[in-house]
Amino acid sequence: MFNLNLVSSAIAPIATIARLDNSVTSGTTNTIKQWLIFSASAFLVSIPVFVQAPLVRLYPTISLLSTIPWFVLSLILIFRPKTQLWGDLLLGFAGCWLAGSIYWGWFRWEPILHLPIESIGLPFAIWCLGKSWGKVGGYFYLGSLLGTAITDLYFYLTGLMPYWRQVMHAEPELAMPIFQSAIGQIETPWGIGCALVLIAVLLTVGLLSLRDRELHWRAFSGAVLSTLLVDGLFWLAASAA
Fold first, then answer.
1. Phi first, then psi: what are they for 42, rounded to 5°?
2. What is the DSSP letter of 188?
3. Is the pLDDT of residue 60 over 50?
4. What is the pTM of this model?
C-alpha cells in the first residue's frame, strides 16, 4: 500500500533545504541591492558637482531644460516594475538637478539664497513620504539637502560668505587667489574646530542610517556621506593650488 507518511518524511528535508536556499538567495539579493542603492546615491551626488557645475556656468538654460529628460526618464522607470526602484531614486536626483540649475545658473552670487533654492523640492518630497510613495528618491533628496545645509552652515560659521561672493563674480583664472585666502580662513583653530564638529555630525548621521537595511535609508546614507567626499576634494584642490 502507498505510504503517504513515508513520502512526506522523505520530501520534508528537501523542501526545507529549498526554502533555506531561497532565503539565502533572497537575502544576498537584498544585500546587493542595498549597496547598489548606496553607491548609486553617492554617485548621483557627485554628478552635479563635476558635470552640472561647468554646464550651468556656461549654459544655464540648457542645464535647466535638461531637468525635463531626467523627470521623464524617472517616470518611465517608475512605472515599470523591474526598474521602479531606480526610477524612484532618479526622481529624487531630478529634484536636486532642478534646484541646482536654478541657483547656480542665476543666483550663485548670493550665498544666502543657496539653501532656500536647494529646498525647492522639499514640499513635494514631504508630500510623497507622507503618502508612502517615492521613499528612496525622497530620502535621497533629504540626504543631499542635509549635506548642503551642513556645508553652508560651515561657511556661515567661519566667515567664508564674502569669499563665496568674490569667487562667483571673478573670472575662473582669477578665482584661485581667492580660494587660497579662504583656505587661510579655514586653517585656524576656529575653522578646524567647526570642521571637525560638522564632519562628526555628518559621519554619525550617515553611518547610523547606513545600519538600517531599508533601501530608502541606504539612499539617504549615500547622499549624506558623499557630501564629505565632495567637500574634501574641493578642499584638497584649493589647498594644492
1. -60, -40
2. S
3. yes
4. 0.86
